[in-house]
Amino acid sequence: MKLLATLSTLLCLPLLHAAEGALPDWLPPDTKAVIGVRVRSLMDSDLMKSAMSQAPAMPPEAAGWTRITAALGFDLARDVDEVVITTTGQGQNPPMLIFVKGRFNLDRLAGVGAQSYGGVPLLGGGEGSKGVVALLDATTAIAGDPPLVRAAIDRRGHGGIPEELATRVEALRNSYDIWGLGDRPAGYVAPASTPQGFENVDRFQFGILLNHGLELNAEIHSTSAEDAQKLLATASLLEAMMKAQQPQSSGTKLDVHADQGTLRLVLTVPEEEMKKAMAAGMRSAQAASQPKAEPAVAAPKQEPQSGTPRVLNPSGGTGAISLPSGR
After folding, report:
1. Residue 216 carries which DSSP code?
2. Distances in Å between the alpha carbon of 318 and those of 105, 301, 315?
3. 130-155: per-residue pLDDT in tens?
4. What single DSSP character describes residue 282?
5. What is the 3-state secondary structure (H, E, C) of 109-141?
6. Alpha carbon distance 316, 111 (integer Å)
7. How far apart are CA 135 and CA 119, in angstroms?
8. Do residues 123 and 117 lie in contact, with contact meaning Cβ atoms separated by under 8 Å?
9. How far apart are CA 101 and CA 39, in angstroms?
10. What's the burial of 146, exposed, middle or buried (CB within 10 Å: 0-12/13-18/19+)?
11. Closest Cα partner for 255 from 271, 278, 232?
């Protein structure tokens, strides 16, 4: 149950099942990894409503963000349909470009001092800013480092990711609620902190469906047959742990196998089990957010005055008696 609770916490994100249109052509042509999240249908689903009804109250630090989005006429839970994150994977901190599909109040945003680049309103990007948001139209926004966003605006109608990568992206995007894929950039060297078995992974992809419970399909390919076997051993251990934790009647299943350096993993969790796991996760979050009670401090014992003898009383405790003077 702990494993499922962890998974459900990661998956409590807004989703939309049906993709709307192809990815835009302004995505960086040297993109190596793409991750997408669908928004709308999960917000209206019984699974999400059940999770939201048990969610702890919004922390005080989130109130500022809520006021900002309200002032902009924007509701994250209601107005966003899809989020796609792309990166070239280059460098120690690879830059990212984020694509958001939804509904944006351009008239109100224009009134908060939005700048302009190529006729496109920009939010942020001031001195010392590390990010900017561009509103291409009332349904499309892009966000990222200012140079990346400006380059994307310039690239409209003249760029886009390679056709082979676009085909793989659309296959996942039209089939799953949460999805992702990636290819190892040329010249990439895995850092020393990379988990054992992942040093030579050169390709991955995954897809998650949440319309009736959870279905996860994932593939990891390694250029090293030895590393592929290490990954298989790790996944097999995870499979055994899940079987030990979950009764057979729960319907939760994890299947793993490897073929020519590719590890394939399929996880299925019925809807009722997901709800139980989510409820357990919410209870843990609520318990963690509660202030801890101060430990009670015992009152100091009153010792009898010096020279006063102590005797056992009939009830089994001790007491003190006073002797006649001079005795």
Report:
1. E
2. 79, 12, 9
3. 788 888 888 988 999 988 999 999 98
4. H
5. HHCCCCEEECCEEEEECCCCCCCEEEEEECCEE
6. 81
7. 10
8. no
9. 9
10. middle
11. 232
Say if residues 322 and 308 touch (Cβ distance below 8 Å): yes
Instruction: Give residue for tokens 């309103």.
Output: 121
Distance, CA of 244 to chain centre: 26
Residue listed under structure tokens 């958001």: 100
Region label for 157, one of left (φ > 0), alpha (ψ between -120 and 50) or beta (otherwise): left
Q: Identify any residues that bridge with 35 across adjacent strands, giving them in sequence order.
A: 85, 180
CA distance 125 to 153: 15
| Contact (CB, 8 A) for 294 and 68 | no
Place of tokens 């309200």: 70
99 SS3 class: strand
Residue position matching structure tokens 């729960």: 250
- 208: Cβ contacts below 8 Å, ≥ 6 apart: 11, 176, 177, 178, 179, 214, 215, 216, 217
Q: Report the length, in residues, of the chain.
A: 327
Residue 97: which of 38, 27, 181, 22 has the closest Cα?
27
DSSP state of 15: B
Q: For residue range 226-267, list pLDDT tens digits in order.
A: 888 888 888 888 778 877 776 666 788 888 888 888 889 999
Q: Which stretches of the chain are DSSP H helices?
A: 2-11, 40-43, 46-54, 63-71, 76-79, 106-110, 146-155, 163-173, 225-245, 271-289
